Amino acid sequence: MNKLQQINYSLYIGILFVAILLFLCLFGPMLAPHSMTTTLEVQYKDGGVIAPPLAPFESWAYPLGTDQWGYDILSMILNGLRYTVLIAVVVTMIKMILGTVIGMYIGTWKKVPHWIVAFENAWSYVPLFIIVYFFLLPINNATLLEPGTLITYFIIIMSLLSVPSIVSSVRKKSSEVYKSDFIKASTTLGAKKSRIIWHHIFPQLKESLLVMFILEIVYVITIMGQLALVNIFIGGTIVRFDPLIYLSVTKELSGLVGQARGNIYGNTHILIIPLIVLLFTTISFSLLASGLKNKFQADYQRTPWIKTGNEPKIAPNRKNYNKKKSDKKLNASHLTFMALLAAFILAGTFVIYTSETKVGVKQESKASYDIAFQMDEDGRFNVQSDILIKNESEDSWNDIMFFYPAEQRNINIEEIKIDKQSAAYEIKNETLKIIIPEKNKKARKHKVKIQYSFEMTKDSMNVLADWYPAAAVYQNGKWSVEKKDYAQGPMYHSRFSDFDVQYQTPEGYRIVTSKKDDGAIEEKGSVKTKSEIAFPVVIMKDEVFVDKETTSGTHLRLFADLSAAESEDLLQQASSAIEFFNEEIGSFPYEQLDIIQSDADTTQTYPGMIVLGRDVSAHELVQSVAKSYFQSNIASNPHEHLWISEGLSSFAASHYLMMAENQSETDAFSVSLSQVDRMKEAGLGRQKSNVPLSELKDFGFISAQPALQINMMINERYELKGVDPMDVKSQYLAGFYKQYRSKEVDTTEFIQFTKSYFSVPSGYFNNWLDTKASR
Amino acid sequence: MARFVQQMVIIFILILFLAALPTMISINMEEKSIQWSFSQFPAAVSDFISQLSQGNLGTYQLGLQERSIAQDIGDNFITSLIIMFFGVVIAVFISVIFGIFLSRLRMTKIFRMMMNVLSTIPDFILIVLAMLLAIKIYKWTGIRVISLRPDGGALNIWFPTLLIAVAPTLYMFKLIAEKYYQTSGEDYIRTAVAKGMNVHTINFQHVFKNIEPFIIADLVKVISLAIGNLFIVEYILNVSGITKFIFQSTEIQPIAIGLISMLFISFIVYLSIRLLIYLFKRGFIYE
Q: For the domain B73-284, what is the CATH superfamily, name and number?
């Protein structure tokens, strides 16, 4: 019994809790069940209504409930916790280092000047949170400043302001130590000041400094909490009027508490849950600090002479100076610590491996291609394609669906093997269905080998967009194989895959792919790309190009039959569009962009490639550059969600014309406006943008309509996000691209993102999107 | 005395600086950066002093209404002073009693455990939790524990006072308990024990007298803690105290007047506690 009482419980529990906290800080966002933009919509289930705010423990999907707007509280906490802990630790680190060094040096002065003492006293009179409050009050506006700026500002202000109190306490402690006999002895022996400070004073202080460090973390969190109660949230406050509400940008814990302060009267869980987590955070650190303090106290304290009632029960840990190294035994606390570390690492690895992105639509299959083709003098292609397909769904597959490159002439399939056995297959509606043999159905990976050949016209230029059997996407328990017959946009629903292509051509043919090449004509070569939505190949003979380097470092090549002035013009326009998007949306995804002129009706954008149609307008060219972002790097099922890439890129193009070329809004959107006028004249009436393409009445409904509607929405709501509507448009496009890059979107994802971006209800989109359709 | 004046001057400058901060920091809309204009400080200060010398305390915002400070400062000052004074007195009383004189009792053990648990909880969380509890009590029993109306009278005062007392009590109790433990290991205590003095005498004559300097030294810290919580408590519980001038305004006048009044309040509280301790010593220790 006595032995059990001697254990330093608060130390061990503190270490465990802090470890849990650090774990959640590192992996919190991965563990979060929902993304920060997902909201719970009102649902009818089993005769009851599920509507936000949802109380905790009512739904498995929202374990800790939601707030009044439907955001998942658990996800907010898991995302915000890292801000709280990290900011507190960084602030503490800065102020402790500064305070300790300054304090120790001042502590060794013979006499401390009056003004320092007076300043310290004055400083300790005004509560720190009031000082920080006045520093943050005029600027803590999230609509005007970036959260990063505000966090950095807070860290600097907070750490500088709290240095004096640390200096004061370190100064007092070190001047106390400075009076000791061993310092005098050392001075007599000729030790310099810095030796005394770092070899004699610092070792005496280090334990109490450690305790102080941890307590100061709690103190910083406390200040953050106090600030949050007066509506100053770290990282910025969003103020909404009618009704007056304050929101935290970072979802940092004390901010979550502060923004839920109004919930003290009802729906208290929105307030209590973040409060409990915040409490857990501070208690973990406090326990650790008090555990360490108990340990040091037990080790160093003298025993009292009268009964005081608070004698430490913890067994002191005495230093044994005569111990040999070989005598060191692993004791229980070492083992426990190692077990904790191992658990931390194991759990972390587990989380990394099992976590899946919550952003975007889930795709449940994955393919990588290894393709080799030879082209002979007659224009016949012999292709061997090895495809590795992973099943990431819970189902076991009976077959695998491919899109059949039906566009090519005289296709001849020579051999199809799956998992090294020849397989039965079926070609129907431009799809290729490969049956998986019975015994391999449970396998999670399939190797498919397809050997086929086709013929190419012997033109000087051949654009091969659809030339290899592309694996369809498995989603929601079925293969997504609808192929669309529209010329615009990607042909079919595909996902980001890795390609490794080897080619061999007769002499004199140039191969252009999405990857950067040095422009030399070679008969043999290989190209590897990572995470691309498709792998188009252009084969040309006797074509020359003009090229240009943009200031942002993208290499532009133009293959066209144009005069020098015209080429120069076109390249100039494309490069200024790239530079603009590079600046406003995000870095241009390709090192090299090939612009190829063809005599097709429409312009097509492929990864790293634009194939121009006849008579391209400025808007169309810029739009196709914008598609390098919104079509080539954000996947979607074109059958229903083609409007997202078309609409956003059309909007981006008009935005470019307005901002970079100073056109008026009517001029910049003239393409979209005239499309809408044309549709009106044709008497097409109204149609939503996210209808299946087979029902679509006019292409304008999926490009002009969304572009104009998005523009209208931002013009209406921009004040929530900034001062200048043009900046907000750029920010919105950049935000969307950043959120969904290399992921798949659909209408629901678009609505969720936009809804939380501009704080609009789902009903806001009702007049141009079917908000109930799909998913 | 010179030192005292020096300190007052520093505090005064600090207060003016804080009050002028909202006018000195602004956002640069063009570059989206933070802009400092320290050059405005002298102007703001001279404006404040000239206003003050004309006997004009200025106005402050209360909701949408603009009110004169001079009209409200009396009541608000008294309210804040009462809350602060009783809060700190309760804190010092409880911690001295339990920290020294009743420290060895079994009852104190429970008290100490409670204090240890509470002290791990940051003050602002305690305040929010206490409010939640008060509202729950009202919902369960119908007994109104708190009032959030500024004209609530005593109902508006006692709860804030209690909340103000919490943080100083936790701090002071911990400090005293620790010092008590340290002091009892000293040689003069051994001498006293060896002489056969009883525990009460030792506690009064030896321990308290040696702990008193620490109490006085940390009184400033305790009052500052209480002031910090006063801001939060008055803001959340909607008490018409001195902080009404400070929040909701960005002008130098109300903020500076609020902070200076705060300074007076802490000064009065500090002196009164010193006086109380002096009386205690006179009455109990030197018979």
A: MetI-like (1.10.3720.10)
Inter-residue contact A482 to A491 (CB < 8 Å): no
Last residue of a domain, which of A277, A303, A329?
A303
Each residue's pLDDT tens digit, B226-257: 988 898 888 888 888 888 888 777 778 888 88
Residues A511 and A390 occupy one common structural domain: yes
Residues 43-72 in B contacting A (C-alpha not used; CB under 8 Å): none
- Single-letter amino acid, residue A238: I
Asked if residue A759 and residue A650 are part of one domain, the reply reads: yes
Contact B104 A118 (CB under 8 A): no
Q: Which amino acid is at A715?
A: N
Q: Which of B25, B108, B113, B125 to mutate to test the interface with A (most CBs of A within 10 A)?
A: B125
pLDDT at A505 (0 to 100): 86
Reported ipTM exceeds the 0.90 cut: no
- A286 and A389 co-located in one domain: no
Closest chain A CA to residue B6: A118
What pairs with residue A428 in β-bridges?
A431
Which residues from chain B sit within 8 angstroms of residue A268, using beta carbons?
A: 132
- The residues of chain B scoring below 50 in pLDDT are none
- Asked if residue A329 has pLDDT above 80, the reply is no
Task: State how far the Cα of A511 lies from the Cα of A505, in Å rounded to an integer.
Answer: 9
Task: Decide which of A249, A273, A303 is a domain's last residue.
Answer: A303
Q: Look at residue A362 and tell me whether its pLDDT is greater than 80.
A: no
The angle at the Cα of B252, spanning B251 to B258, to the nearest 5 degrees, equals 105
Higher pLDDT, A47 or A326: A47
Which CATH number covers residue A701? 1.10.390.10
- Per-residue confidence band for A774, with pLDDT thresholds at 50, 70 and 90: very low
User: Quick check: A424 and A435 in contact, CB under 8 A?
Assistant: yes
Best A137, A272, A273, A306 residue to mutate vs chain B (most B CBs within 10 Å): A306
Co-location of A297 and A380 in the same domain: no
CA distance B92 to B167: 11
Domain membership flag for residue A201: yes
B135 touching A (Cβ < 8 Å) = yes
Q: What is the DSSP letter of A198?
A: I
- For A556-593, how does the pLDDT look when each residue is reduced to its tens digit (9 = 90+)? 888 888 888 888 888 898 999 999 999 888 888 888 89
Of A137, A218, A265, the CB nearest to B122: A218
User: pTM of the entire structure?
Assistant: 0.78
**Angle of helix B123-141 relative to helix B209-237, nearest 10 degrees?**
60
Q: A283 and chain B: CB distance < 8 Å anywhere?
A: yes
- Residue ranges making up the domain that contains A250: 3-12+80-303
Cross-strand pairs, B220: none
Mean pLDDT of A623-629: 90
Domain containing residue A183: CATH number = 1.10.3720.10
Domain assignment present for A554: no
Q: What stretch of H or E contains A373?
A: strand A365-375
**Can you give the pLDDT at residue A305?**
76
Sheet holding A399-403, edge to edge: A425-428, A431-435, A399-403, A470-471
| CB proximity under 8 Å: B 10-29 to A | 10-11, 14-15, 18-19, 21-22, 25-27, 29
Amino acid at position A189, single letter: L
CB pairs under 8 A between A and B: 171
Mean of pLDDT over chain A? 84
Does the distance separating the beta carbons of A268 and B6 come in below 8 Å?
no
Residue A504 is inside which H or E element, if any?
A: strand A497-504
Residue A486 pLDDT level (bands cut at 50, 70, 90): low
- Number of folded domains in chain A? 3
The predicted-structure confidence for A724-745, as pLDDT tens digits, reads as follows 888 889 989 998 998 888 888 8
> Is there a domain that residue A104 lies in?
yes
The domain segmentation of chain B, as residue ranges, is 1-48, 73-284
